[in-house]
Amino acid sequence: MRASLASSIAVTCAAVLALPASLAAPAAAVVPSALGLPQAVSALPSTRPATPPAAPAPSPADPAAPALSLEAPALSPADPALPPAPELPGSTQSLPLVPLTGTSRALGGETAGAGEQGLTRRDVRPFSLVGVVWDDPAAPLHGAVQVRTRATGGAAWSPWQDVETHNEEHGADPDTAEGATRTLRGSTAPLWVGDSDGVEIRVRGEEPLPAGLRLELVDPGEDPAAEAQEPRRNRTATARFEPSAPAAHAGLSAAEAEAGGVNSRLAAYGATWIPALSKEATERAFRQAPFRAAGQAGPVAVAAAKPYIGPRPKIITRKGWGADESIREKGFVYTKTIKAAFVHHSATGNNYTCSQAPSVLRSIYRYHVKSSGWRDFGYNFAVDKCGNIYEGRAGGVANPVLGAHTLGFNTNSMGITVLGTYSQSAAPAAAVTAVARLTAWKLGLHGVNPKGAAYLVSGGGNLYRKGTTVRFNAIAGHRDGFATECPGGRLYNKLPTARTTSAKYQGRT
Fold first, then answer.
1. Which residues make Cβ contacts (< 8 Å) with residue 95, sequence separation at least 6?
2. What residues contact 175, with CB distance under 8 A and at least 6 apart?
3. pLDDT in tens, the chain (509 residues)
4. Do residues 271 and 260 make contact, with C-beta atoms less than 8 angstroms apart?
5. Rounded distance between C-alpha atoms, residue 140 and residue 156, angstroms
6. 232: left (phi > 0), else alpha (psi -120 to 50), else beta?
7. Which DSSP symbol is given to 444?
8. How many C-beta atoms lie closer than 10 Å to residue 17's C-beta?
9. 3-class SS at 443?
10. Distance between CA 426 and CA 495 in Å, rounded?
11. Do residues 459 and 174 make contact, with C-beta atoms less than 8 angstroms apart?
């Protein structure tokens, strides 16, 4: 069973902030439980039918989008009397909120006002992540959202936890096919609460609340790769372990084969992770065969006389963290190049262990696609507090995949989310180092100096009008492109260190 978590948003990361003195290519980060820790409980199906969104036509600015050969199968509506066993891992329960009237325990014994909705304490099927969605993606939720939960099998309820309501700054650019799709919904940031089977929620509006508020309870499901691996476990507090070597897996679905195929130059089909390379091997491989985005004729980057490319880090693939490839939209969408990397925090809280990071990722992925209506996981990469690096949106880790992470500036950029909330908690040194290692490699493939500047054209937002050319640091924070608290002040303050370290990994002085 997935380990139960005590719910709290005030957990402070224990890691110190000093980066390693040596900048030689570090040993690859160990891979957490995606490949073999004890399995979670079976997930039950969603309480509403799950209809795969229609695949949008490729954006005119991003024409290269080869399609998969098969449509994702539609799921049958859940039978509330006797839910069948799910065919796919993970599930989402979607519960409509109702007005809170009179004196309610959900309001701490206070009298409810006209702009307050929620749900009183109730038993639900197991879940690990929560969020709130509503009908109109353009309608903001100005107010406070708080939840408390009960750990599965327990009796005690957690304290009230705040859910980040300002989430509109994430998502696809308005003029792209993904940004205009009818499946989009307004949504809060998701919050990881751990294995739970009871929930209570209250929403207080500072102005009229948006219509159609629903509580989304996401169960990441069992780890589909757990039975296929026999890793050497390191029984520490974070339950980390060394994985077996990458290998191709038989029985891949068409969607899994397509997602793995775009990384086939780096690892075998079905590999659960892409191995690290030394700086010399990375540069030699690039000179011999510059990477090309799928469907594009030219190389992703033109190598200089001396290519400044950092050593490729170990990257856990979507297969490795258990992404269900059938729920995303088919095909991939690319941008032209990568000029900058935007760093985010996931705002999901810090109350997770590194062994749970794959479950956190599967939950965020399902929330992005099934609850928020996005085509795929929003970020291009994710990093956990132990420094493990994960492939995010499908399309190939070396390719310029168009993400949905920094509203207005997704074109010609990449998004990296550090799992956790770093407004008050210190950013773990391992995570900052992982950001430096990842950007040294990926920006290097595109000829970008991590300490340099990048110029991007705004697609529209609350800081820069559409069409405005904006100068960014090559490694920027989300708040640099949008008026937002993301990536949290404590992580944002470590970005200068990440830039310097990344440049040193590239071999720059």
1. 47, 119, 124, 214, 215, 217
2. 59, 459, 460
3. 444 433 333 333 333 333 333 344 333 344 443 333 333 333 333 333 333 344 333 333 333 333 322 233 333 333 333 334 334 579 999 999 999 986 455 545 555 555 799 999 999 999 999 999 999 998 999 999 999 999 999 999 999 999 999 767 777 887 788 887 778 999 999 999 999 999 999 999 999 999 999 999 999 998 765 434 433 333 333 334 334 444 444 567 888 888 889 999 999 988 999 999 999 999 888 887 665 544 454 444 444 446 899 999 999 999 999 999 999 999 999 999 999 999 999 999 999 999 999 999 999 999 999 999 999 999 999 999 999 999 999 999 999 999 999 989 999 999 999 999 999 999 999 999 999 999 999 999 999 999 999 999 999 888 899 999 999 999 999 999 998 999 999 999 999 999 999 999 999 98
4. yes
5. 33
6. beta
7. H
8. 14
9. helix
10. 13
11. yes
Is residue 29 within 8 A of residue 314, CB to CB? The reply is yes
Q: Identify the sign of the CA torsion 13, 15, 20, 21.
A: positive
Spatial neighbors of 502 by CB under 8 A, at least 6 apart, are: 310, 435, 436, 437, 439, 440, 443, 450, 451, 475
Q: Take residue 137 and report the two structure tokens written for it.
A: 């993606």
Distances (CA, A) of 330 to 213, 224, 285, 504: 28, 21, 30, 38
Question: Quick one: CA dihedral 28, 29, 30, 35, positive or negative?
Answer: negative
Task: Give the predicted TM-score (pTM) of the model.
Answer: 0.78
Task: List C-alpha distances in Å: 291 to 283, 312, 318, 398.
Answer: 12, 13, 20, 7
Q: How far is CA 192 from CA 113, 114, 264, 412, in A?
A: 28, 29, 32, 30
Contacts of 162 (CB under 8 A, 6+ apart): 9, 144, 145, 146
Rounded Cα distance between 440 and 333, Å, is 23
Single-letter amino acid, residue 466: K
Report helix, strand or coil for 311. coil
Residues paired with 287 in a beta bridge? none
- Please state, as a whole number, how many other Cβ atoms lie within 10 Å of the Cβ of residue 182: 9
Determine the distance from the C-alpha atom of residue 212 to the mean position of all C-alpha atoms in its chain, rounded to a whole number.
25
The amino acid occupying position 295 is G
Burial of 251 (0-12, 13-18, 19+ CB in 10 A): exposed
3-state secondary structure of 434: helix
DSSP-assigned beta bridge partners for residue 457:
469
What is d(CA 124, CA 313) in angstroms, rounded to the nearest whole number?
Answer: 40
What whole-number distance in Å separates Cα of residue 343 and Cα of residue 338?
A: 14
SS3 211: coil
